[in-house]
TrEMBL record:
This is MFS transporter. It is a multi-pass membrane protein. Pfam families: MFS_1. The lineage of its organism: Bacteria, Pseudomonadati, Pseudomonadota, Alphaproteobacteria, Sphingomonadales. The chain crosses the membrane at residues 21-40, 60-81, 93-113, 119-141, 186-205, 241-265, 277-299, 306-328, 334-357, 369-392, 398-417. SUPFAM superfamilies: MFS general substrate transporter. The keyword Transport applies. Keywords: Membrane, Transmembrane, Transmembrane helix, Transport.
Length: 439
């Protein structure tokens, strides 16, 4: 076999896992998962900034994301409550359809409010989108993890991140383009259609093969087990408290930085078209490349080392925005900062999400992943909503992004210590038990 033929075969072997049925389904689930985030994240931030809303009020709107961090409170319902009539389609499929409809209705409601006349009503509408999007995420994450085989968790996480990024970027870009032409109301209404890919995926593929119903009969004892069971099972594992501490700490700096980028771009004088080209366009492709590289690193380096590497990379990426803020408005500078940040986030999106997916027990997939994903960003979102605007106004963007870089260090050190103590291997659940030893 020639070198060219061998290289072609290696390339095909690398790509093949990404085009299998389950990872492809994870992609379409990710598309629908990403768009509600865009509606109350960068898109709403831009809308409020362009309407002349004060920075403190704009960053306070990121508290709407805290609804995502509370989704563990009702995630057990998705695991344990069977919906009447539509429930015949299956536990995951029926909830997927209901949650999708709720998201579309919430986004339509946000489209109808006017921030300039009622900021409070806009806040309520954003919170409703957050609640509906969080419920949608609960079902989507459970469906994805149960649909993927243990050996597909890395690739499936990558495809899910591909979908999430495409869904959030496409919805955000579509909203910006339509807002300049038909206004924000029509832009939001059009974006509600992004809920459809996940709903159609559930209808076409049906119930996941690895789904395990935690409730045999619907008595009060079983209901309590569906609520307490996920927590009890997780905290029985060795090192569970350190694992939880890592989940809480690892993304503080990244979350704090990401939710303020649009404020930086607006203050630096970038137009909507420039944001669409550099933030969304270049960032989009850099993220896709990062995801693909993340899949390769996960396969070559193993879960533990690839997660540690991605944590370091994501921490350093925040520094690029301190450099951009110091440089001043520069299209090349913005492209470099956005490109590096998205490349690092793409790698982390594969490795860290695969690890968090592996933490789940298949009896409590929805509830446990809701707990994990909610805990992963709650501190950063709370700090953004309560202090980010004031910190930026007091210290400026350069020092603010240097602070976010420093905040990444505790999570990196903790994960390294967990590796040394063997707690990474001990922390995984039944979602990964068929994988064998973790490298």
């Amino acid at each position: 076999m020639t070198d060219a033929m061998q290289g072609s075969r290696n390339w095909l072997d690398a790509v093949k896992p990404y085009v299998e049925k389950a990872p492809l389904a994870a992609f379409f689930l990710g598309v629908s998962s990403g768009f509600p985030y865009a509606m109350i994240g960068a898109t709403l931030t831009t809308r409020l900034a362009q309407d002349g809303i004060d920075k403190k009020a704009v960053t306070a709107f990121t508290l709407a994301f805290l609804v995502y961090n509370l989704k563990w409170l009702w995630a057990w319902v998705v695991d344990g409550v069977h919906l009447p009539v539509i429930g015949r389609l299956g536990q995951r499929v029926s909830w997927l359809l209901v949650a999708g409809v709720l998201v579309m209705a919430a986004v339509a409601n946000l489209a109808l409010v006017d921030p300039t006349t009622s900021l409070l009503q806009t806040a309520y509408a954003a919170i409703l989108v957050g609640a509906a999007g969080a419920t949608f995420d609960i079902v989507i994450d459970a469906y994805r993890i149960e649909m993927l085989k243990p050996e597909q968790l890395g690739v499936g996480s990558g495809m899910s991140q591909y979908g999430w990024r495409i869904g959030s970027v496409a919805a955000g870009a579509l909203a910006l383009v339509l807002a300049s032409r038909i206004g924000w109301h029509g832009a939001y209404l059009a974006c509600a259609a992004f809920a459809l890919p996940a709903m159609l995926t559930g209808l076409l593929l049906g119930e996941p093969e690895r789904h395990r119903d935690p409730l045999a009969r619907r008595g009060m004892g079983e209901v309590w087990q569906s609520i307490a069971g996920p927590l009890v099972e997780f905290f029985r594992r060795r090192g569970a408290l350190l694992v939880l501490l890592f989940i809480l700490l690892h993304k503080i700096g990244d979350t704090l930085a990401n939710l303020t980028f649009r404020l930086l771009f607006d203050d630096m004088g970038y137009t909507n078209d420039e944001i669409a080209i550099y933030d969304i366009g270049i960032g989009f492709w850099a993220y896709l490349v990062g995801i693909f590289i993340g899949g390769i690193l996960y396969a070559r380096m193993g879960m533990k080392r690839s997660v540690l590497f991605s944590l370091i990379l994501m921490g350093v990426s925040n520094f690029s925005f301190a450099a951009l803020a110091a440089l001043g408005k520069s299209n090349w500078g913005m492209a470099g900062a956005i490109g590096f940040e998205n490349f690092a986030s793409g790698i982390g999106g594969v490795t860290v999400v695969a690890y968090f997916s592996a933490l789940c027990d298949l009896r409590f997939t929805a509830a446990q992943y809701a707990l994990i994903s909610a805990a992963a960003s709650i501190v950063g979102r709370f700090l953004t909503g309560t202090t980010a605007g004031a910190l930026i106004e007091r210290f400026g963007y350069v020092d603010f992004y240097l602070l976010t870089t420093a905040l990444a260090v505790p999570g990196i050190l903790l994960f390294w210590l967990m590796m040394r103590a063997g707690l990474i291997d001990a922390s995984v659940g039944s979602a990964a038990t068929d994988k064998g030893d973790l490298p």
